[in-house]
Design brief:
The structure is a homotetramer of 324-residue chains. The first copy, chain A, is α/β, with parallel strands linked by helices and 324 residues long. Chain A has 2 domains: 183 residues, Rossmann fold; 117 residues, 3-Layer(aba) Sandwich (Rossmann fold). The first copy, chain A, has 11 helices and 11 strands. Chain A is elongated and about 70 Å long. The first copy, chain A, starts with a strand and ends with a helix. The interface between B and D is large, with 46 and 46 residues.
Chain lengths: 324, 324, 324, 324
């Protein structure tokens, strides 16, 4: 292996830059020529590829977003698009790939590898922490802390006005952000896609709190909860409890994706980036690098996409006990 | 004057606690007995009043929200309600009041003073900075910094994906938060209630940026803009520009109200609190304390409510020049 | 078991309050009467003990420091002192203890348990992460993030002035904070007590960076490094390299202990607090609760104190590779 | 005027980049060719000068430090050095200069202007706020907030352990940072170079607090206080009070210079940058742009350097009243 290219794809996540830095410097350290592909699969097709040296990744470990940019590519979903991508890579002499991203990224990588066999190792970069094969994904810890800061701020208002706040956080299929920011923020209730929390139970809990003279309550809702989005849920509950509770809603939205990465994400991203490039050098292919129980492991792309990642049931139980 | 009571009313704002601390300690320093009324006018009616000493306000200068809580009181809008409030105050021997809040708070205070003549001095506590009689209100600087942090985070994603973001910030009648966070965040466009920004102009600016190879753009929208809320504006623009621009929307919402106050707000709150209590001792009444050109001034409640507070036109001009 | 008392001891650490909250609410949830001992062993002797209910621990999950305060107690090191402590506990009917703290705390708990057999479970609360029996201690993640924020700020100046900065972080016997904040902050060199980094090597690395046109460099030094404190090390190096490098030093100091806890520390503290009280109920005694590989484990106090906690050698290797 | 060059000099300050952006875009907006000089007077001599366009200053409004770097130049203090600088500027056709910096920067600019008459306008960029001719300097608000965050963290520990903390902040000749962060942080005492606070008084205040059952105290010391540096002062006081008070010291150091600028500093920097370039175009020369009472004013360099900037005596009085 001589020339390896790296790209980011899918939604950006804090720590992607720290990961890029680790891959590039790790590759150079081991004697490889390193290249960056701009805008993921789209740049792979259009040939937006540039040589990277140690200085190209200076002073980025602390930055949010991705210096290699990210974009969707419909064209890469077609055999013709992938053929173009392959031709471009060949014209640059690329003989190895590092892909940073999530589900969609690895689905593409899996298909591409099966067709053209360019050795590829992935790094899990997504705030949702919904990938099998790693305890945590790059960006998750930062997203949780960002959500938590927002919850801390909202609690000031909730307490000052004796209000109930429904706060929606990211997580279409996964309640990880909701649970962790809920526990961290001292939420009374956390609603996640993985388990069903009936509205009746939410109402009972809120009313009970009221009786125990709780002056305010926080309900954290993952965007993918089966009872609907936070505004919808709040509306339903308002209808049932009337004026007794002063209910407000806020949706955190895009702020959860950005920001400089936390220490945890910088270190995780560095370990995974270095692990991925060294894995690639040592013959790993068609796999994602992950950290499980503090060890570096490689999991086939197909498993990272298809296998379910169970939620921590004991954390949900904890929400209940700690909010009494 | 012997016994002075303090209360907070209206939406909570960061720095209210620093202001309470300055009022209480300033009063005690000058030999007064100090009382806190819980939940504003509502607590004034129900008699939720407590003695405060120096220790009651320890370790709160850095906290968001208000330890005296805030609430709406319909009853205080009626003569009967105000009579009850007056009776309660008399029964506690209160002969002076400090009111921290915004428009609604001072409207109530004005009416109450005209009826019962209890000397009252106000402190401007609202994130909107929409009160005549002070350059800045308590909470404004913190709200701007909170919005700015959010914009900084969103810019990471905007840059990574070459997107246009419409970000809605607070300000029903006032564009102060929008303008300051827009300039601070390097926004391409700022839309405020005070001046009309036609959608045509917004589109032209965004397209021009595109031609000059700006990879992403930020538009900050005050919630009270005459073109509508951010999601609405974004929808209209999407219809006109089609797929050329990848447009996203986010509404910052309640996070802007909370959080520990900035240095600026803590100092402003401390100066206004101390100024208000010393003003009250010196015979000021029915006025709001403010800082204009770095000097303490007192403005009749009626003027703070009715007189318009002009926006900085030169700051809007600056947005335009600095986004080229 | 009916009455359990909790106390914090040793240096304060962010997350101690979240842990107190989890212990108290967990105990109440399981039907126990919960008590708080103020100022650790010192309050145990003087009888500064108070009943705690659910509301006593409201709104503290996000606060730094410890609401139960901490203090050194020389008296507890004597048999007479411990006798007094025992008598006080008996007079309150306390039949179980939860101790939050570090090395010194558990040494005291071990001795006390051997003498009086009151079942005691510990929670690891120290920013240094130097306790065997848990992957991470409460407060460590926050301390690393605080150090990292400081390093990020100093790098601005280092880059602007092409300087070399020596930054001293906490860690008398342990390089954990230094290594993690060094990797996260993109440091060129990390010096820790566990391994010896000769000054010659430091100089070579700095000079090499200079040749590769690195405009600035960061060296993170743990306070317990065998080459001395950061100012000392910097002085020695200045003598050898002369004016070629513009060297500055900063010691982060006490800011590393304080601040609201990160999400990670709040969740860790909550898990350990709940785990400790449930462990105590289930018969655990004379042990510390810890999380190893994401599982709750109990380790005898004697092991937590005496067994060495190895540093991550692979992280040190990473510093070297990533700084090229 | 056709070609204007901008440079930063002296210690870096947060907001310098926002100022560079405003100068460059303002100049381009008004039809000028804009140039950046790297490393201040040193780069002016060596000819490290580059053309700047709108994109050169993209995405820097939020960054600490200075992208144009800063350095000391002994050579510029000599007539020969300044001759070289002049020749370099002439060879690039530069006919106007914008200098961002503090005292030393403007002293150099004053001498240079008197010798060679290249129209020069300055922008006050220094965290110390020690320049006459502007209410606040670029970087001051950020430095105060950074100090305040540190004080907030240290208070957690001070409270948890009932300690007295002496915290040294920057300010060799000026107590501005000390006073504002002291008030904001709820300090019991603030010691500044402008007024003398006898140690006897410090001791009395600390002891009084103790009697009023204050559990902890914060003393903020400006580095230029006439009683010495914080460690020295603490040592003297320890000798006099003995073990009664548990006294600790921390010196904030270089973290105060760095970090992304606050909203206030970004807006101030933008206003001053645009004001400076438009002033230069309109014929201003040998002056510094400042904001006094919210208006843009120009003050001769010689006055900004020589005239004293008085401290807010009323703020010092406030520290005393608010710490009771």
């Amino acid at each position: 292996m001589k020339k390896v290219a790296i790209f980011t794809s899918g939604g950006d996540a804090p720590g992607m830059n720290a990961c890029i830095r680790a891959v590039v410097r790790g590759g150079i350290y081991h004697g490889l020529d390193m290249y960056g592909i701009v805008r993921g699969y789209s740049g792979m097709i259009s040939g937006d590829i540039k040589k990277m040296d140690s200085r190209s990744v200076s002073n980025i470990v602390q930055r949010g977003g991705t210096i290699l940019k990210s974009a969707r590519s419909m064209e890469f979903m077609t055999p013709e698009g992938r053929k173009k991508a392959y031709d471009t890579l060949m014209s640059h002499g690329i003989d190895g790939l590092i892909a940073i991203g999530g589900n969609g990224t690895f689905t593409g990588a899996e298909v591409f590898f099966n067709e053209y066999q360019i050795p590829t190792v992935g790094c899990p970069g997504t705030i949702d922490n919904d990938l099998y094969g790693t305890d945590y994904t790059i960006g998750f810890d930062t997203a949780v802390n960002t959500s938590l800061e927002a919850i801390d701020k909202i609690r000031d208002t909730a307490d000052s006005h004796d209000r109930v706040f429904f706060i929606e956080v990211m997580g279409r299929d996964s309640g990880y952000i909701a649970i962790q920011s809920g526990i961290g923020g001292g939420a009374e209730i956390v609603m996640v896609p993985e388990t069903h929390t009936p509205l009746k139970k939410v109402i009972t809990t809120l009313k009970d709190g009221w009786k125990r003279s709780k002056s305010s309550s926080i309900v954290v809702v993952a965007e993918g909860d089966e009872e609907g989005h936070a505004p919808e849920i709040a509306e339903k509950i308002k209808k049932q409890v009337g004026d007794k509770l002063d209910i407000r809603v806020t949706t955190l939205g895009h702020i959860q994706r950005g920001g400089g990465p936390t220490a945890y994400d910088r270190i995780l991203a560095s370990r995974l980036g270095l692990g991925a490039i060294e894995g690639l050098i040592n013959g790993e292919k068609n796999v994602m690098a992950g950290i499980v129980n503090n060890n570096l492991v490689f999991t086939p792309f197909i498993d990272t996409i298809q296998k379910p990642k169970p939620i921590h049931e004991d954390l949900l139980r904890m929400v209940h006990i700690l909010s009494i």
